[in-house]
């Protein structure tokens, strides 16, 4: 049929996402994106609207793919926020250890390059980090800790997650990364236990 796209849009997005993930936005040249997707420059622009628009779509695809896994892990242990955070890091470490995908995290990679991004793209990256923090914060809500403590813990967990991605790209071993995650979970558990103890004394 005239005008019908003769390629798999989802597959092309996945391949482009890997280029951004592996190289970062700044070093993901149009040539590399065209080579990965199998599209000429004109077809790439026609299908996705250019590099910046393609980058936004890749961010959304990445967030949809892994965000669903994070959300499922965090929601799988109602009433047990520490176990929820442990499950979250299990998913994160599983992605990092997966040899079929690039090292690190597309969002962490993009956040590190925020100064080179157009405003819209930078805001999207920040928004995705905020969504991640909101998911973690919701998993912590069953605790008796005060709002400020829970907000700070959620930000802390997201910061550790991003650090794991950076460390993995620098060549940290799985054992080293799991040690970081384990200590983070201990920090969360200790902070929540301390808050519960204080609440009990005050009560």
TrEMBL record:
<feature type="DNA-binding region" description="H-T-H motif">
    <location>
        <begin position="29"/>
        <end position="48"/>
    </location>
</feature>
<dbReference type="InterPro" id="IPR023772">
    <property type="entry name" value="DNA-bd_HTH_TetR-type_CS"/>
</dbReference>
<dbReference type="GO" id="GO:0003677">
    <property type="term" value="F:DNA binding"/>
</dbReference>
<dbReference type="InterPro" id="IPR001647">
    <property type="entry name" value="HTH_TetR"/>
</dbReference>
<dbReference type="Pfam" id="PF00440">
    <property type="entry name" value="TetR_N"/>
</dbReference>
<dbReference type="InterPro" id="IPR036271">
    <property type="entry name" value="Tet_transcr_reg_TetR-rel_C_sf"/>
</dbReference>
<keyword id="KW-0804">Transcription</keyword>
<keyword id="KW-0805">Transcription regulation</keyword>
<feature type="domain" description="HTH tetR-type">
    <location>
        <begin position="6"/>
        <end position="66"/>
    </location>
</feature>
<keyword id="KW-0238">DNA-binding</keyword>
<protein>
    <submittedName>
        <fullName>TetR family transcriptional regulator</fullName>
    </submittedName>
</protein>
<dbReference type="InterPro" id="IPR009057">
    <property type="entry name" value="Homeodomain-like_sf"/>
</dbReference>
């Amino acid at each position: 049929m005239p005008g019908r796209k003769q390629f798999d849009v989802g597959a092309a997005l996945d391949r482009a996402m890997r280029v951004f993930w592996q190289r970062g936005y700044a070093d993901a040249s149009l040539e590399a994106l065209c080579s990965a997707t199998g599209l000429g420059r004109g077809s790439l622009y026609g299908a996705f609207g250019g590099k910046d628009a393609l980058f936004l779509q890749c961010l959304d695809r990445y967030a949809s793919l892994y965000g669903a896994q994070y959300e499922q892990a965090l929601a799988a242990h109602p009433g047990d926020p520490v176990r929820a955070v442990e499950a979250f890091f299990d998913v994160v470490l599983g992605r990092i250890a997966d040899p079929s995908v690039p090292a690190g995290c597309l969002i962490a990679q993009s956040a590190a390059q925020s100064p080179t991004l157009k405003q819209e793209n930078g805001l999207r990256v920040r928004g995705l980090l905020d969504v991640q923090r909101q998911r973690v914060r919701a998993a912590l809500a069953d605790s008796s800790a005060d709002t400020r403590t829970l907000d700070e813990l959620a930000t802390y967990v997201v910061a550790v997650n991003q650090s794991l991605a950076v460390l993995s790209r620098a060549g940290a071993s799985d054992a080293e990364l799991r040690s970081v995650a384990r200590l983070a979970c201990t920090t969360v558990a200790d902070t929540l236990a301390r808050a519960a103890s204080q609440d009990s004394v005050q009560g």
